[in-house]
## 1
Amino acid sequence: MIDVVLSVFRPGILLPWLASMAFGVLVGGTPGLTATMGVALIIPVTYYMEPLAGMAMILGVSFTSIFTGDIPATLLRIPGTPASGPATLDGYELTKQGRGMEALTLDLLCSAIGGFIGVLILMLVAPPLAKFALRFTNFQYFWLGIFGLSMSASLSAGKPMNGIISAALGLLVATIGMDVTTGLPRFTGGNMELLEGVGFIPAMVGLFGLSEVLKNVADPKLLKQSSIPEFGKISLLGGMRIVLKNKLTVLKASIIGTCVGALPGAGADIASWVAYGMEKKTSRTPEEFGRGSVSGVIAPTSANNAALGGTWIPALVFGVPGDSITAIVLGAMLMYGLRPGPLIFQENLTLVHGIFAVGLISQFFLIIVGMLGIKIFGTILKLPRNIVMVIVLIFSVIGSYAIRNSFFDIYIMTLFGILGYFFEFVDIPLPPMILGIILGPMIENNLRVGLIKTHGGFGEFIFDPICLTLILLIVFVFFGGPILNLFRRKEKLD
Amino acid sequence: MKKKLVIIFGIALILLSTAVIMESLTFPEAVSAGKKTPGPSFFPILLSVVLIISGIQQIAAGARMPHEEKIPGWSWGASNSVIIILFLFLYVLLMEYLGYAAATLLFGVLLMVRLKVGFFRALTVTALTVIFIVSIFGQVFHIQLPAGLSGLPW
């Protein structure tokens, strides 16, 4: 094993690995460029490299871009990647309080620790966890989707109904386009561009990015200020002390992240929301969430990077992709002449150990590269708001266009921007809508296919042990807080 | 202002959901092995029912809200939001004719000047942004930026 660890420091592996991490900073930090896109672009470069160097580049890009996606989310309330959604809540609140540096340092450290725990779990319990993940069928996936959605819907402080409205609207938007089961176009109004559905990247950029720009430009006083008037200061050591104080949160969120990541099709996007929701529900100070809570920063970021380790579990053990990134990884493995699946642990054990080593060491490199990313973005955003808002607008437009090379997506972005701006006035939270658009197809298809399998019966959806657990968790999400508070009050009285 | 907006939002939800139900009812039914199965209309109708109930709840919540302060008048700040939306539509149209770089340069500079940034500063920042985007999106990611009538994105 030591030989394997040493071998990853060979220049042939180390240099492309570090270059890919620098590339990941750029990909994650730019709204519209996703981690999946970054990995897909790396693959052709790795074609002539040895497999471990290719794997190191893939892991490097994915871990770094998932973290750097949190930078614009924290500083500007525009998620760089869909998994960074929760960073727009407490991370952004901390930035508004002049504690942006603290939020990002904690984010970086917890991303690294979460990623480390995710890979560690991948090394230790990959086969049994993958076996459990494979027990998930349509019924369980339906509830998993609802669970993820209820997590974000329940976050609307004091108004869970508004969260439900936002989630339902997101699910409704997801029904636009060609129906996967029957091939029928739904709510497209004859528009060919809508046949593929509403892209969640333009919707996300509009809801978070454009709506924020519209809010800012409407306030002349705000416009003259710097985008981050006070960035704050904190050393890595200072950040580590705060992380150590919240070690249980980090551990809990990392385990949740890895488990959600291990479920094929779930991935980092759901993991971050589930971890955030769970943390809020079990917190002794849930009222601080959404107002700049440190735990609100730590939990989702630990989970989204841990989920990356989790997504490799079904990919390596069964050759089933955990998310879109591991789907590309599986393709790359075949390109290298490898056979992902149970046999890889016998035929290519050295490579598997190499992947584990790269995954663990990447977390240390992430701290260095990530710090650099924070400094770069922090410097750019010291510009006055009237300049930054226009730059954000230009990036929002190109980010929306780039996904499908479509002008139509820019209109979609604009529409969602207006919607997001209006939603702020009526207290409708934005994150559940985005998650609804992302999870909509998964929820609808699993519900319909499940009902077809049971000939319309709901028994299988309720009486299966995993389904029942998920249903209880959903009930806990909405009613757990008041129940826990009741117990705590009783404890205090005693 | 908020009271009115919440009530309008509730009404909009009900109208939208009703329209979705009407449209969904036109979808063909799904049949498998001679039995009716949940078709393409099943999920949208389910969601619309939830949204109608939510709409009624919003109207009720709005009606319960206390009477509001006066709506603030039209201001320079408020007009900025409208101008940005209009500019965005113009920007897309311009991109189709002028290509990405020229249209972005024009859009960026005009908008910054409107937001009271000095002309030369606006020009420099926008030009640097355009160079960055053309090199990263265009050259590294090979994303086809709008070429305009000249056939080139710049």
Note: Residues 76-140 of chain B form one domain.
## 2
Amino acid sequence: MSAIPQSKSDEPSALWHALPWLLALAFFFLADGYHSLGVNILIMILFTLSLDLALGYAGIITLGHAAFFGFGAYAAGLFNLHVSADPLLGLAAATLAAAALGLVTGALILHTRGETLLMLTLAIAAILHEAANHMRDLTGGDDGLAGIRPGAVFGLFRFDLWGKTSFLYCLGVLFVWFLISWRVVRSPFGRSLDGVRQNAKRMRAIGTPVWLRLVAMYALSAAMAGTAGALSAQTTRLVGLSVFELLTSGIVAVMLVLGGERRLYGAFVGATIYVLVQDVAGAINPFYWMFVIGILLVAIVLFFDGGLMGVIETARRKLRRGGAPGAAP
Amino acid sequence: MRAVTILLDGVAYGMILFIISVGLTVTMGLMRVVNLAHGAFAMLGGYVATALTLKGVPFLVSCLLAGAAAGAAGALAEVTVFRPLYRKAELQHVLLTIGLCFIAIAALTLFAGSTPLPAIVPDWLDRMVDIGYRSYPLYRLFLIGVGAVMALGVWLIMERTLFGAKLRAAVDDAQMARAVGINVSRLFFLTFTGGCALAGFGAAVGAGIMPLEPFYALRYLVYFLIVVAVGGMGSFRGSLAAALLIGVVGTAGRYIVPQFGGFLLYLLVFGLLLWRPNGLLPPKSAA
């Protein structure tokens, strides 16, 4: 089944599209004291959205997306320390760096598939982890890269202690990337990748340059993950080695499936829930959240295909068909 | 002479990797399930063995019981959560097994605390013996011996029994095996249970060089997966070769170029997988 809505009646209304952004703005004005948590959520949404492009839409099975997040984070940090403090320039540099990494590694590995591809992506993240660990002079090794001091956004808005500027800054960047993703998955290019995911052989038979398309999508996804990493470096002012860990790659896949793949908004739901559960449960006991997330994952895979967004969509459809007139928004 | 020491250390390490990973290799080859929870079963075994040894149970007995416990947990997991999984896509496998991993880590930490476990190598193993040119830890020689025995045992089962013949047939072509009347589901259940038992035993025996701690299931998972991928899924000989290669190269890298040991190891894995996407010694079906 293609997850891209086929008819107009399946398209959610404008109100639904505005909802996440309205919620984010409401959060900005109402949730004083929680802005840094909000920033964390926004960054994770962007990271998850990037994985949705590669894994969800193009079907590139990866356990190494942390490579791009981490590469973007280190690139932004180093750019800030050695080149310029302007946050937007740093963001652009990190995005390009991650895209280049995605292009090169994607070109090398995307002719493989399945478990081999999984291991290759994992190996790339591990290689970067080792490299960052041992290039101490450049990256600070396992002490992390500290001393990042981003300047004001547009030269006007300074990053404050409470994360208000960071929140709007991340929200703006997320919005831009969301529009790009929205456009891409609905373009002929995105549709062709939908086909590649479902049956690469047939797509090749009708003349689609499969490998080229996959590499292009992978690089785009890498660029987006790099942006997320850069935002994390700029807002937390620190890059730790853990950005390259297997757990980071695993967590982003968890967030994606929690929300539901191939839905774009799934990333919003999944990342938000994950970060909130981690924050609440983690405050009780750092291992407690792993338990909750673990149970959630097992339940979702076994019982709810399509994640939480899938559950919401089914509910909406049922409401529209069986419910009273006007029950559906 | 330093080369001999590195070789011995590497082989000891590789043997533990082999004992833990061989079950994963066969199950991944048989059912194409990407099982990221394999490390959790190993970890469970290690924790059980530690708890038993601290209660005064002899080391070897607790290692065997650890294997039994991990096997039982594996059997339970196969019936309850893995069966519905076979028909799903790889991503679902990855997610569900990561979930199992999280649950196992949280549960074991609840019982044993969030600090690394004490080493349980008994006194009779924890000493040095003369091996001609220098003295060498008996424990590592013991690991090599145990690994060799296990490898021989697995080889005998795979190559010399009817069960092994069915298993090899099913790995090569599960559909055809089913068509000639082999009960592949039962085969898989037994293999999964056996693989988990071996992993639990391996983690218990090898705790002296792969210390048990709360994130054991994830920390060493990469190595187990590397053994599977480099060796070739479903290939017993491949996993032995890959485990020894990873053990020796990893150890040599750490001793000779400490800064770049891990880096070289992953680079080697990356290169090997690009060169042979199906592993070093893939079973016939994948070649």
Note: Residues 323-329 of chain A have pLDDT under 50 and may be disordered.
